[in-house]
Amino acid sequence: MMKDTPQILDNLIWLRQVKHCWTDRNAVSSLWAEQNGNVSVPYEIDSVIENRTEDILDALNMISEKTCIRFHPHNNETDYLHFIYADGCASYVGCRGGEQPLLTGPKCTVGNICHEIFHSLGFYHEHSRYDRGDHITVLDENIVSGKEGNFLKKKGNTLGLKYDLDSILHYGSNYFSRNGQPTIQPKESNITIGQRTHLSDLDVQRIRKLYHCDETKSGSS
Questions:
Q1: What's the CATH number for 125-196?
Q2: Which residues sit opposite 80 in a β-bridge?
Q3: Which residues are annotated as active site (predicted)?
Q4: Which residue out of 65, 77, 116, 215 is catalytically annotated?
Q5: What is the pLDDT of residues 135-162, one digit of tens each?
């Protein structure tokens, strides 16, 4: 059983504690540990959402087919992802240690689930980067009251990669709008943000750099 109750913040659950996972001081957050030269994350799908198994596996495959991260069914490991039922979609950021819930609601698409798995691997939202001002404008006056925290800048390593408007981790233009007007406006014209259909090239690079994929046996191109 989990020893604390996570603070759910819409698409994100903030990491409160880390017990057993590997911490890289230059990483975005605490990482899943490497074992025998590979990173393979144990997972369990709760029986209540067994009907979402195909979607969850598709989301895991979106990551594993392009990176060195692998996923395998939980088998007595201390640290593991536990896909559970909830109204929405949410995840801790990074490996927290022990049973780690990943909330999977009925409306979570494959892309939404993949987005949350990215959080569990140690990544914050792209629009929370400190250099976002060069690429987007956050329109605070249009944000639903109480949701302003979803748009705050967060400290984290950008891994030397440029800002990515196409990232699966980026919010869309009208997320949490109180009046139908944009909450995020790209400075570049004719740009759509907030896609949940694919990993961008920079999404792939981000995982490969954080988990040193090019230094592991299973790193793929």
A1: 3.40.390.10
A2: 99
A3: 116
A4: 116
A5: 999 999 999 999 999 999 988 889 999 9
